[in-house]
Design brief:
Elements (H helix, E strand, L loop, with lengths): L1 E2 L2 H10 L12 E18 L5 H10 L13 E7 L2 E7 L7 H8 L4 E7 L3 H5 L1 H11 L6 E7 L6 H11 L1 H8 L4 E6 L8 H11 L6 E11 L7
Parallel strand pairs: 1-8, 2-4, 2-5, 5-6, 6-7
Antiparallel strand pairs: 2-8, 3-4
Length: about 230
């Protein structure tokens, strides 16, 4: 069992700002503590392979052809049962040594993405896997390798394109420790997107779940003010 650390708050500042509601001085508040559980997922891969599109499709069921490259870091949440998936898309920032350790710290699962129509992005999967091995801080992380943009070819071609042309790479990946699967998908057509994250979730170590304790304040606005 892991308690959330300060690194998450640092990463979150890149993606969104938090606004606290103003609480009236004389309001009567009821305080209760709740406990949120979550796993951390990092989406990595070469530029323009569709990392942000996968995140947007999974978390918000949105796809945009005009989606711009991620600048900084993108962030999304998705709930499965009583556990949230906290999903990060670094937009390539993890290639900078000064902040790479921050993004790989405490990650439970990785989605390593390539473009099935771009040979270099497929070959570069090995480099991304080396980065994971080098910078991951957990021993029980899991990895899904994903070929995106199957919408660019027809159903017959996409199976042959991946399975035959790069069969030797896929076999090597599947034999590596921590890698739990390989699949192809389309963020545009919402093909196999849920399968990616469902597979990760099923293979997470329950003992590595993060616990984020929060305090809920309920304001009784009908209470008369004193003095």
């Amino acid at each position: 069992m892991t308690i959330i650390d300060s690194s998450d708050s640092i990463m979150l500042k890149h993606s969104q700002s938090l606004k606290l509601d103003h609480v009236e001085r004389f309001a009567v508040a009821k305080q209760t503590e709740s406990c949120n559980k979550f796993f951390k997922i990092l989406i990595i891969g070469d530029s323009n392979v569709g990392k942000s599109a996968i995140l947007s499709r999974y978390c918000y069921d949105i796809f945009s052809i005009t989606l711009q490259p991620t600048i900084g870091i993108d962030f999304g949440l998705k709930k499965i049962k009583d556990i949230k998936l906290q999903i990060w898309d670094t937009g390539g920032l993890e290639r900078f040594n000064s902040i790479r350790n921050l993004y790989y710290r405490g990650i439970n699962g990785y989605v390593v993405v390539y473009d099935i129509m771009e040979p270099n992005s497929i070959i570069n999967i090995n480099r991304w896997l080396e980065q994971i091995v080098k910078y991951s801080t957990l021993d029980d992380y899991v990895v899904m390798i994903v070929g995106n943009k199957t919408d660019m070819v027809n159903s017959i071609e996409k199976e042959e394109y991946v399975d035959k042309k790069y069969d030797y790479l896929i076999k090597n990946w599947i034999d590596m420790p921590h890698i739990i699967g390989h699949t192809i998908c389309s963020a545009m057509n919402n093909y196999n997107i849920n399968t990616i994250f469902d597979t990760l979730f099923k293979n997470f170590n329950p003992r590595s779940v993060y616990i984020n304790k929060t305090v809920k304040i309920e304001i009784n606005k009908n209470q008369s003010k004193c003095c």
